[in-house]
């Protein structure tokens, strides 16, 4: 059984998912906009993203913008956890996510892992970056 995170954005999905795909080295980013749907669907004609997806390390991350006029709250009660292969890679990922965002817990050694940190990126997504004990 797998669970695939789906993130909601308010007009920044394409930018966020492009950033995440680059950050995690994914080459299969797909972006479908509301304007790509046929008029028969009744969906609004908008350049907002209806569905975006990429995969990295055998796992997928999905996202979309909320439809125009729909209330939006950034990811408030969820965080995406990413396990980095080593402390150096974890630090690079953490620093890029922190650029323009807000660090909740600095990336540093902890009692349960060689390195762990929490950050909210500039798109409002909460991340936990961890290096598992080896």
From TrEMBL:
Full protein name: VOC family protein
Source species: Thalassovita aquimarina
UniProt cross-references to Pfam families, sorted A to Z: 3-dmu-9_3-mt
Transmembrane intervals: none
InterPro entries linked to this entry: Glyas_Bleomycin-R_OHBP_Dase (IPR029068), PhnB-like (IPR028973)
Residue span, PhnB-like domain: 3-130
Cited CDD domains: PhnB_like
Top-rank taxon, per record: Bacteria
Signal sequence, renumbered to the chain: none
